[in-house]
């Protein structure tokens, strides 16, 4: 399944000549970011680059379309891991809600919301000028991607869609473990800024974690990205898991899959554990002192700091930096 974004000129778009307009472009890019293959096509002389679709008063880097593209890049570790699962199981990253909630009659005919992997529920805006979108959330606890607001499942919630930027109906499922590009690799001002994922081999990753009372896990996967050697066992696979029990949260990384012989350049995970912040943290049974701030955490071998997540409406989060590729056990005692 692919999404050839913005590919067809039919005279019914929102542009002045009936072609693709700024809103069309932004919403299609948000839609396409949560499909297996995202690529932007054009025909009949239409332009497809984001700098041709900049609303008045904005710069190209501030647009909802560019925001969607950057989010797609940041999710590459998550997406690539699911491609490995698809090869093994035949189940793709885009999944109808009925896959996970077969007894819920409310999702049997849902076509405008879907799971993107196990942990994200996407519900794109597909109507011109839509001010609010009603989204049905299945059973469970859900966190809104940008605001950090929480919703109980088994109900329809109203999502304000008046603005385009940082305002896509995307929900995080309780128990989520989501590996993403590091802040440095995703920052245009950084020396390590990633402009193409072809041949990209991260040395560190962020891992977004939303603990649940039940044990949940995610299999992080990587390979050389260039050859078919993964068919011969040249890959890296490590299971990450988390569980909340009372005031404690346990996050663990298992020993890498012994079958996989690929040695990635990955050295560290910065684990962002959302919920009540930690008062103490131990790594492999040893208590670790907190660092002064998030800047101090960057470049450290290991450590932690409590704070707020600016990408999620400043909800509480504990940042923990640990070595990747090793068996690790992190225990947070929360306030």
From TrEMBL:
Every DUF5110 domain range: 204-275
GO molecular function terms listed in the Swiss-Prot or TrEMBL record: hydrolase activity, hydrolyzing O-glycosyl compounds
GO terms for biological process, alphabetical: carbohydrate metabolic process
Pfam family, one: Glyco_hydro_31_2nd
Keywords: Glycosidase, Hydrolase
InterPro entries on file: DUF5110, GH, Glyco_hydro_31_C, Glyco_hydro_31_TIM, Glyco_hydro_b, Glycosyl_Hydrolase_31
Alphabetized SUPFAM superfamilies for the sequence: (Trans)glycosidases (SSF51445), Glycosyl hydrolase domain (SSF51011)
Keyword Hydrolase: yes
Source species, domain of life: Bacteria
Spans through the membrane: none
Residues in Glycoside hydrolase family 31 TIM barrel domain copies: 2-81
Gene3D superfamilies per record: Glycosidases, Golgi alpha-mannosidase II
Domain Glycosyl hydrolase family 31 C-terminal per the UniProt entry, residue ranges: 91-178
Family: Belongs to the glycosyl hydrolase 31 family.
UniProt-recorded name of the protein: Uncharacterized protein
